[in-house]
From TrEMBL:
<protein>
    <recommendedName>
        <fullName>OmpA-like domain-containing protein</fullName>
    </recommendedName>
</protein>
<feature type="domain" description="OmpA-like">
    <location>
        <begin position="142"/>
        <end position="257"/>
    </location>
</feature>
<dbReference type="Pfam" id="PF00691">
    <property type="entry name" value="OmpA"/>
</dbReference>
<keyword id="KW-0472">Membrane</keyword>
<dbReference type="InterPro" id="IPR006665">
    <property type="entry name" value="OmpA-like"/>
</dbReference>
<dbReference type="InterPro" id="IPR050330">
    <property type="entry name" value="Bact_OuterMem_StrucFunc"/>
</dbReference>
<dbReference type="GO" id="GO:0016020">
    <property type="term" value="C:membrane"/>
</dbReference>
<dbReference type="InterPro" id="IPR036737">
    <property type="entry name" value="OmpA-like_sf"/>
</dbReference>
Length: 257
């Protein structure tokens, strides 16, 4: 089954008065959608490629104060909107955003209250939607590198954080849609002048390689390598947390296309 570039969240879809909606769910006290929502991205978008979002409503469970919950609901809306924007989905300029603390009719099942509801309409659009990552990769020449944005790992490990899934899906789709494309996956770390003792950079590059391999990308089209701190974007030691983040990265180099 082909994977789709666009990253959109889905759990429940329904229609009312010409407008459709779907709900995105969150774990307790989290402002990023839970793993199940992330894994449902492809299935939803395959059926709803051309939409325009007009309204988003954020909710929380009954735990904690009204003010705290309202701020959490606002952050949930923010993160869902960022994912929609990243996907290229059309969002109305006068988007209506409503965040609720506790002032709504709550379900007795707390997990059902931790959500963002997105309202949208279908639109006619013959122009194919292309992600920014796809555009960068396809505009790059052989030998050039492209950074994979928003790939996160747990501290000092090669375990990928679930919120990295949108970028991984984008890369997967690019590989599926371009069967002649061959890449080297490159891992980099930050903050250390010494040798990458635990070879974390290689392990992280391997994690992305394994993700693609597990999703049926031919191993002959990919290699991976860890570069430690030998190719920093910023001199080490870094001067800020932002510079550390930019040095701690995964890139792909175009080998053939």
């Amino acid at each position: 089954m082909k994977h789709i570039i666009i990253i959109v969240l889905f759990l429940v879809s329904s229609k009312s008065i010409g407008q459709s909606q779907f709900e995105v769910f969150f774990d307790f006290n989290k402002d990023f959608p839970n793993e199940k929502s992330i894994l449902d991205f492809n299935e939803w978008f395959a059926k709803n490629k051309y939409i325009e979002v007009s309204k988003m409503m954020g909710y929380c469970d009954s735990v904690d104060t009204k003010d705290y919950n309202k701020k959490l609901a606002e952050r949930r809306i923010d993160n869902v909107q960022k994912l929609l924007e990243k996907s290229g989905i059309s969002i109305q300029q006068n988007l209506e955003r409503i965040a609720y603390g506790k002032e709504f009719k709550q379900s007795k099942i707390q997990a059902e209250n931790r959500k963002v509801t997105i309202f949208y309409n279908e639109i006619k659009n013959e122009k194919p939607i292309v992600s920014k990552l796809s555009e960068k990769i396809m505009n790059s020449k052989v030998g050039e590198t492209v950074a994979l944005p928003n790939i996160y790992f747990y501290n000092n490990s090669a375990r990928i954080v679930p919120k990295s899934e949108p970028t991984l899906l984008e890369l997967l789709c690019v590989m599926e849609e371009n069967p002649k494309l061959k890449i080297e996956i490159q891992g980099h770390i930050c903050c250390q002048k010494v040798y990458d003792v635990n070879d974390v950079s290689s392990s992280r590059a391997r994690a992305v390689y394994t993700y693609l391999l597990r999703n049926k990308i031919d191993r002959k089209r990919m290699t991976f390598k860890g570069y430690g701190t030998s190719h920093p974007v910023h001199p080490i030691p870094e001067k800020s947390a932002q510079e550390e983040d930019e040095n701690r990265r995964v890139e792909i180099m175009i080998l053939e296309k």
